[in-house]
């Protein structure tokens, strides 16, 4: 056999090029003439230019490629079990996965549904193939994540919390943030939701912290399963980013869209920041036991992925099309992370509320303190005592930290927009919308509710734009309830009917575990009800007081 | 136990568990290793159920705070009003094919491999050049036209998968869409590839027939009527209960798969057979869903009346579409399949499906 003879040369036959295949597939569509296509979800945008499919892939190559990716994922899960991964995994980390994995399959499948919303909006059929693949991708992500969660439940030392996962998702005060994230993908103006909020901002910018940065931290905690699943998920995101950008480019040349694009880029960025940074920042910084000072902090990761990768290389070039970029918001988000301790305050809040969670949160230790102080100078002075209190109050019989006045923590208002509480006290704002008072964590969130989610934007009618609805303040659902009864109603109780799923420690021993009796006797309340009951003058005083914040008492 | 004693016990080194593995310690809940928030259909939850049930929540199933964003008219993120069908339990349905991502990719990928191998091997042996010339024209004009019907139903179900009230309903419609769109592309690429071996073969002609040829206008009208429905369940019903047996199977099994071998074509039946297997699964899911709705203790009678209305409307269109296709059966040089037989078989098929669902099959399908 000659050296140049290969199997490919023997078997190759003339075929059609990838570009040709993509073109022919794109020609499958037509404009109906007998019956108009079904009414789709409306948008206030105009899309007159045909978007191009940058990926030029057809389903014939897509399905085998995805199957191969799946084979690697499931093979790796088997290998992790054979290698006894759970013997060495850090429970501190896996506990936070009870929250993360309760949230994420719904946003994923919501993204699949939202492909129906953009699929028919654009002229031409080329990008429809891209949307089809994204629809099936998102179906993949949702169910592959449910599988991962089941796998943790079957193999991790404490399955409680995984076992109630989707019920917990619908009820928990923390997962409510994830529901805001997901419903934004598929409700309201179709382009705002499914293009700008989902693909242009969430997928292009924030999946990097979600699906790239977080898996790295998982691996540092002995969890090889999360990286194998989520990096595989992330490999699909490039297609989605391409879909989003292509649709964006089909609209950006029409100046009549600019006003709405500016609104939606701003809204989507701020909400993604408020929601994703709160949750993922907490998982990465507080779910880890790895305190290598050479690794990047969440703030440093944010700078790399959001500031450099998204803001500088994706958003800024949009200015050449005449789009005004919301530079101030990017700077404000950065300040919230590095100067105003947004992530640390979120972790603190989750910990104060541990008894109504469905996962365990153990206290940070001296080793953790050292790392935090190194990465975030000044951290210890503000948060050190709090974590000492949490360690001290982690023993059944102590007063639940949520109600323990010795600690000095003051329970926050809930933000009506992002649904994360108003944790950066000095940024707290309130406003009146349709005759009712609402509280917000920031000016960006006030603007989102009052200005962006409205029937008119800067004098322009926006009839397709969504509205905020539902019982958005979680605390209102249990106003006046004894916390033990609320926990029972939430279903966050273990099968013995009394031991709570959530625990403020990682001690896997019945005698150390809190029961409903250990928390009974304290009443939950809605901060907003009280705030609304105030007169305007009293509200002003209360606002000023709230903005002054609180000081955690020394813990000896 | 006092707080002090408890704290002292908690800090005893003897209770420290170093392993994070299942079974490393026994405590309340340490053996709770099954999703416990839904009632499985059978004795034990299937893997499909674990992957699917309740991932899309709603106020009846755990959504404590209700939907938190709405459309401007107040319609929530998911609404029961997006179909005229009613259910006393939208959560009951489970897809018969039990598909979740892994099984879906495995099946789709297997089909892609099978189709590609068949085409490649066929072309390698020069098979397309031995197809009967009249048959080549049929493939070019009519299979080329039919691919657009498959695409139309694929986009219609892609649209429909947004509207269902539960994850189970929407995922079944989603996989239906995925199958239809794959098959539309399968045909497109198949014709493009054999076209390379057949001088004068024009891949663009199929679309012209789809848009202009009177033979195909009934089919196009029927498909556009499915695409034009504002009720997602009507789209799903019309696709699988009406169009597929009366037009899809009629053309695929009743013509292409029967006639091809007599025209020296062993490739087309292999390509088309995948769609027949897809349909069996989609049909099973559809029958399960509409059977549940048709036998609903509260809304069954009203639902059956609605389904009969849908059946009558779409059957008229589909039957007209089928009849318009008749001339194609006369076009092969070697005639092995008769249109009348194929149509009779199609009518029997829809009668069988109708009987399963308790529907009244319109008179024009009864004979």
Please provide a written account of the structure.
The complex is a heterodimer of chains A (556) and B (367). Chain A is mostly helical and 556 residues long. In chain A, 57% of the residues lie in helices and 3% in strands. Chain A has helices spanning 7-11, 18-26, 59-82, 85-88, 91-103, 105-119, 126-155, 165-171, 175-186, 190-220, 225-252, 258-286, 298-315, 327-338, 342-352, 366-375, 379-392, 443-452, 474-477, 483-490, 516-519, 527-533, 536-548; strands spanning 429-433, 436-440, 456-457, 460-461, 467-468. Chain A has a two-stranded antiparallel sheet with strand order 1-2. A two-stranded antiparallel sheet of chain A has the order 3-4. In chain A, strand 1 (429-433) and strand 2 (436-440) form a beta hairpin. In chain A, 56% of the residues are buried. Chain B contains 13 helices and 1 strand. Helices cover 63% and strands 1% of the residues of chain B. Chain B is mainly α and 367 residues long. The model of chain B has no long low-confidence stretch (mean pLDDT 95). The termini of chain B are far apart. In chain B, helix 5 (133-160) runs parallel beside helix 8 (214-227), helix 5 (133-160) runs antiparallel to helix 9 (232-259) and helix 6 (167-195) runs antiparallel to helix 10 (267-294). Classes of the chains: A mainly alpha (556), B mainly alpha (367). Chains A and B meet through helix 2, helix 3, helix 4, helix 6 and helix 7 of A and helix 1, helix 2, strand 1, helix 3 and helix 5 of B. Strand 5 of chain A pairs antiparallel with strand 1 of chain B.
